[in-house]
Amino acid sequence: MALVFDEFEGGRSGGRPGRHGRARRGGQRDRSQGSGPQQQGPAAHKVALFHSEGGAGRAARRRPTKVPLPLVKKIVVRRSFAFKITLLALAWLVLAIACERVPAGTWWPAVFGALTVPGALLLTAALALYWLRRNWRVALLPAVALALCWPHVQRGLALHWAGARANFDQGTATNQGPNPSFLPEAVPGALRLLSANVRIFNVYAALRDPDFASSKGFITWLAESPADVLCLQEFYNEPRGSRENGQVFRSAERLGPGSGRHGFVSTSLTNRIGAEFGLAIFSRFPIVRRGTIPFGKLSQNHAMWVDLARPAAPGRPAADTIRVFNLHLQSMSLAEGDIVDASTTKAGLRDKAPGLLRRFRNGAVARARQTDTVLARVRRSPYPVLLAGDFNDLPYSYPYDQFAGALTNAWAATGLGLGATYHGRLPGLRIDQQFAGPRWQVLGCRVHREILWSDHFPVEGLYRLAPK
């Protein structure tokens, strides 16, 4: 790279006579003092002055002066370094996205690579802005990369402002009761699905409050919800009540026949008083088939499904059958306190980090296997599929990536913002999801952040099935 400046006032930028001017005048003096014939008088002096000044001026105009080499090197090195950073950032982005497709059982460190996708996307966007101010041709590299990776941007940060705003306005105008949905209300033929991890309705002594206020409030809120289908994780039910709790936790009765719904409880554990723990689906449409999907030995972490027969209705000219999956993938088993300690103090990092890493790895390996099990059932479904549940994993992970490859995520398709569903000391985590099969049109999705009775916020989606 060569940067040059023309010089008009002599050989150097300071305005002093250049080397050529001095040499010409020196040669004139030599000739005047030599042994040859010399011109005398004023005329001779004018001729010498004319040759001296004219020669120096022409030489100055003909000869450019280069910018000092250190400055040139500094500019070249700086731009070359920024370009190398751009190439490295693009390579990082490609590798991070590739890590999302690697199951933890194959190579578990890929989990950490996938978690860096947001950082790679952010750096790529920053580099696009940087080069846009300096070289638009180079800016095309990160800009095109962002365009190709836009679905990955929407995974973590949904940017559907117009649709979300319209849904919010209509919901505000039409839902003035205790359960505002902020979703379009009057959509003929649409299906409203509400999913929530209910944290066993706070039945344990460490979770309950006086007079079971939060437990009663949560069950009542779900019973009065306008949702057609409820998918609940960490469900708790006392079929006959109990001496200690009375009739508070007869939740299957309240959410099923008590609210005009059909119910199926997939029980993974029954305790000594006959209380049931597991997953549950409640539907306003008849349940014609149902099943449980264990992940090895049946435990709190498993999946279930139901086939729902929907009759013809306005906006749905013919009866149909749909399949709804409800799942609860393996927990990370990471205590919030341990994470906070490991990230704030050296002693906490030394004492807690090895155990946290081991549990994180084991959870990731288990969720990858569970994802493959459920996805195989989804692909074999003879009916249009809706799927909801507690994934215990982020949008930049193997489970999310696999489901997103076959289904459409409701929040990524219609939401606005992060859509965080975890209600705890670790903000911004969206670990509860709803997915829809190819025939479904996603009309809206909302996270109920006003419901504070669990460590998960309920998620509500609105769907309409396209005709065959």
TrEMBL record:
GO molecular function terms listed in the Swiss-Prot or TrEMBL record: catalytic activity
Annotated region (Disordered), positions in chain: 1-45
Stored Pfam families:
Exo_endo_phos
Per the UniProt record, the lineage of the source organism begins with: Bacteria, Pseudomonadati, Bacteroidota, Cytophagia, Cytophagales
* CDD domains assigned to the protein according to its UniProt record, in alphabetical order: EEP-2 (cd09084)
Record carries keyword Nucleus: no
Task: Give the highest taxon in the source lineage.
Answer: Bacteria
**InterPro entries named in the record:** Endo/exonu/phosph_ase_sf, Endo/exonuclease/phosphatase
- Where composition is biased (Low complexity), the residues are 33-44
- Domain Endonuclease/exonuclease/phosphatase intervals: 201-456
Biased segments, Basic residues type: 17-26
Q: Which residues cross the membrane?
A: 81-98, 110-132
UniProt key word Transmembrane helix: yes
Name of this chain's protein: Endonuclease/exonuclease/phosphatase domain-containing protein
* Keywords recorded for this protein, A-Z: Membrane, Transmembrane, Transmembrane helix
